[in-house]
Design goal:
Layout: H1 15-25, H2 31-38, E1 44-50, E2 59-65, H3 83-96, E3 99-105, H4 107-113, H5 115-127, E4 136-140, E5 149-153, H6 156-159, H7 161-181, H8 190-193, H9 199-208, H10 219-222, H11 228-242
Parallel strand pairs: 1-4, 4-5
Antiparallel strand pairs: 1-2, 2-3
Helix pairs in contact: 3-7, 4-5
């Protein structure tokens, strides 16, 4: 009998594979929503983010208030669903939820405040984009700085139907954004890898350097060589900001 950490061939399984195995064993229910409703909450929002580990583009969060009187079947962690099923569920969520909102924080902002704080910011913006507003939050393994009563749930997207719904909306929205950039930066294979560090993506970073929408603070990006055209632009921009060298005169006509 192979151990839980090894495949049938005896090969050690990766951390991501082990995590997926765990998530598949968890049951996504309305347990946490029912507890919140029983405590007096009326609009319980599930909150989740996607794209935290990506090398490219924004981190995206969603908040969803499910209708207690309408059950959307098949909700589960977006990572466990094929793309076509995610899209079907996303359409149902948008149609039947009492409220939903999506928010994104771009790569430049991620580099400024780091991915953890960017994820929290995206979640915060999604929560405060809800109309009507939520009075209770179920959040995937995180707490937000706000006055709304909340509960952080580890593996929440695999355990809570509301968080799973948020995970699905955020994933569908982010995948669409990244896919739209694929023809603009075709060398990275964004349409298939969605900005994550696949072998093809890492090889493209080594060969071509990062694009302006890559997260420059992430190690595989900042260790990649800078493309020559970008390097030349940076040098020219720096020279323009410094002005003429000492001892030289600018003979151009003032505008």
């Amino acid at each position: 009998m192979p151990s839980d950490k090894k495949s049938k061939t005896g090969k050690e399984l990766s951390a991501s594979t082990l995590k997926l195995r765990l998530l598949k064993r968890l049951r996504c229910t309305l347990k946490y929503e029912k507890l919140a409703w029983a405590s007096g909450a009326q609009r319980v929002a599930g909150v989740d983010e996607v794209g935290r580990g990506s090398l490219f583009g924004p981190v995206v969060a969603a908040a969803v208030v499910l209708d207690p009187g309408y059950r959307i079947r098949g909700l589960r962690d977006s990572k466990l669903l094929p793309p076509d099923r995610r899209q079907v569920l996303a359409d149902r969520i948008r149609e039947h939820a009492l409220a939903w909102a999506v928010a994104a924080v771009d790569a430049a902002r991620i580099d400024q405040i780091n991915i953890y704080h960017a994820s929290r910011l995206a979640m915060h913006e999604a929560v405060f984009g809800l109309d009507p507003a939520a009075d209770y939050l179920l959040i995937d393994a995180m707490r937000l700085d706000c006055e709304i009563q909340q509960k952080a749930i580890i593996h929440g997207d695999a355990l809570s139907a509301s968080i799973a719904a948020a995970s699905i909306l955020a994933k569908v929205h982010r995948d669409r954004l990244i896919t739209e950039w694929d023809p603009i930066f075709p060398v990275y294979g964004l349409g298939s890898n969605k900005g994550y560090s696949t072998p093809k993506h890492l090889r493209a970073l080594r060969e071509h350097g990062p694009s302006p929408l890559h997260r420059q603070s992430f190690a595989p990006v900042w260790t990649a060589p800078v493309p020559q055209d970008v390097l030349q632009f940076l040098l020219e921009d720096e020279a323009a900001r410094r002005g003429p060298a000492p001892g030289k005169f600018d003979n151009s006509v003032p505008k």
